[in-house]
Amino acid sequence: xxxxxxxxxxxxxxxxxxxxxxxxxxxxxxxxxxxxxxxxxxxxxxxxxxxxxxxxxxxxxxxxxxxxxxxxxxxxxxxxxxxxxxxxxxxxxxxxxxxxxxxxxxxxxxxxxxxxxxxxxxxxxxxxxxxxxxxxxxxxxxxxxxxxxxxxxxxxxxxxxxxxxxxxxxxxxxxxxxxxxxxxxxxxxxxxxxxxxxxxxxxxxxxxxxxxxxxxxxxxxxxxxxxxxxxxx
Length: 233
Ligand SMILES: Cc1cc2nc3c(=O)[nH]c(=O)nc-3n(C[C@H](O)[C@H](O)[C@H](O)COP(=O)(O)O)c2cc1C
Known about the structure:
Elements: H1 6-15, E1 25-31, E2 37-43, E3 46-48, E4 58-64, H2 68-75, E5 78-85, E6 90-101, H3 120-127, H4 132-141, H5 145-149, H6 164-168, H7 181-193, E7 194-208, E8 215-222, E9 225-231
Antiparallel strand pairs: 1-2, 1-5, 3-4, 4-7, 5-6, 6-7, 7-8, 8-9
The chain binds flavin mononucleotide.
Flavin mononucleotide (FMN) is lined by residues 25, 38, 40-43, 61-64, 67-69, 157-158.
């Protein structure tokens, strides 16, 4: 019987700390095709793992399929994220592989990114016949009407904004139960632009600054086994 690595328990424990309420934002760093780094905040949606394999955890987040980070991930699937939980004074740095799962009707490249060599969790899910599009729709359906509207902009995130007047005409809510033909069209646009972003960590660096002396532990995955090393903070 496989068990979740200790770092997952540490993150879940930190998240349940009363002073860490809402600390579900991490910063995700990518490197583009020209080797230039980029970093941005993203919302942690959930952990998941292949059936019967809690030792192979993945982090679920999401994005707009048209956003620059997607092209960066297509060029290089190695990413690192940093997660600071101020209430408990824990920093988690997770390094690993990312995959993007856009809609089949996404604008531009609608293919999902490949399984990187060594990405055992992604490979196991593939072997188990995991339905990524069903997961994408499930996560989309959990979003608020306001969030859904953010995937309706007629122009890609990061492109020049012609006028704020035009921006004001864009939908501000996409209700889950469409009340008009316009709602229905907007829901289709939002769903088409909505992409799942999955992160498979292979190294986790946990700096616990809420204890004295401070403790820092590095977890490294070797195949499907997690090793643990205490290091100098
Ligand atoms: C608190 C916060 C949470 C965010 N969450 C997400 C998210 O989950 N997914 C996302 O694509 N962008 C999210 N963003 C926006 C990104 O940080 C970024 O500005 C945008 O996605 C464009 O990034 P890119 O140009 O690197 O693709 C968030 C921003 C903030 C401030």
